[in-house]
Amino acid sequence: MKKKRNRDSVRLSTEGKYIVNRARIDKGWNKLQEDWYTKALTSEATLKRFWRGTPISRDIFIEMCKALDLKEWEELADWEDHDSTTVCFPLADNAPPEDLLPTLDLQYVKFKFMMTGIFAEDKRTEIEVVLAHLKDLLRDGCTITILPNKKSVAVTGTFTEEVNEQVDIALIHLEKLLTNYRLTKLPISESAL
Asked: What pTM did the predictor assign?
């Protein structure tokens, strides 16, 4: 018999993890930042459960999002009706933050993204440096196009979890250099390619 999930508890969705991760990087916080869980009036243990995708109190979930200045908390929640039984492996007391995310076979999980944007001519050199770095991080088959007449750029590519944070940092830097941009980033499985 399947148990119903407590509607007063919420868990972070896979897509939500990427949004939360970007927001905490923007604040300069690590994944277990004391300022974060203190501002949300909770504990480090609850922050670990939040990262794992384990259901936590809805009120605490909202406070965790508010601490990151994320107002649309509903978009970060996993609303699917799941079995309430969750298997979690204990973390070592000194486990690095990367161990908080679910363990995945990195050989089979990767991400794809597409970014387009417009830039000012004086930013061209910096943009080319960031694009060269991105090209080193991306797997074969990435495309990088700079249209000189329109001062626009388009980048598409795939990458593994191993370089996810480095790609995020490069994309954030690129966002700051562009006057207008659009970014789409999604997790995909190797079998989907």
From this structure: 0.43
